[in-house]
Structures are given as C-alpha cells and as structure tokens.
Amino acid sequence: MPGRIRIGISGWRYAGWRGVFYPQKLAQARELDFASRAVQTVEINGSHYSLQSVASYRAWHDATPADDARLISSAKPRPRGARDVFCYFDNDQKVRTPFDARRLMVRLGLAPSAGQQIETGR
To answer: Which residues, if any, are the signal sequence (predicted)?
Structure first.
C-alpha cells in the first residue's frame, strides 16, 4: 500500500482564529468539526501535555469526519511500517496556520482550489 501525504494543523481552539478562519458566528463547540473539514488531519496536542479523559477522546472522534487519520493524538503510537507522512502547521497568533495548510494541500493536488467554501458536516 503506497503512503499518503496528510497536511494538517496542530490544535484547533485558538481565539485568534475566530472570525478569521472560523466563521464569525460559529459556536466554539463546532470549531473542531469545521477545522477537520478544512484540512486533512488535526493533531490533538493536548494529549502531549496531560492525560485526557475517555469522554474527551470520544467527543473529539464524534466531532470529526469518519477517517481514521483525521484526528491524531501526539501520544498515540504509530506503526513502524506506516509510510504516511504527516505535515503539521503549528499554531500562531497571526492566523496563518490553517490557511497555509490549506494552500499546501491545494498546491499538492490534495484538495480543491482554495476558493472553495469549507462545508461543515452538520
């Protein structure tokens, strides 16, 4: 099985992204859903810093599209034989991260043009 390139972001809950990357009136509870549809993978970077509850992992899972590589925990061990490449854009306060990730996806032919509206699943 050939490997895949997955472009994503490190985290999703950043106040500076509200009204810029996230639509103005999007509820904070829907940010993961929106972000996970804008890029191919979202890193749960909170799991690197502290133990998360089972309920949190379930909620994150339920808020994202059905794709086993859509939501990645930095604490989750990866199989040694995996050939997928994950490229994360780290968060920033200038709100470039999600847009840079999306532009790279378009440039590599991994997503439709940057002008296409990002749809939420609900």
So the answer is: none
Secondary structure of the chain in HEC code, one letter for each residue: CCCCEEEEEECCCCHHHECCCECCCCCHHHHHHHHHHHCCEEEECHHHHCCCCHHHHHHHHHCCCCCCCCEEECCCCCCCCCCCEEEEECCCCCCCHHHHHHHHHHHCCCCCCCCCCCCCCC
| 63 found inside a domain | yes
**How many domains does the structure of the chain reveal?**
1
Taking only the tens of pLDDT, the chain with its 122 residues reads 566 788 888 888 888 899 999 999 999 999 999 998 888 888 887 666 777 788 887 888 888 887 655 666 655 555 545 566 777 777 666 678 888 888 888 888 887 775 555 554 44
Full domain range(s) for residue 78? 5-107
Answer yes or no: is 118 within a domain. no
pTM equals 0.70
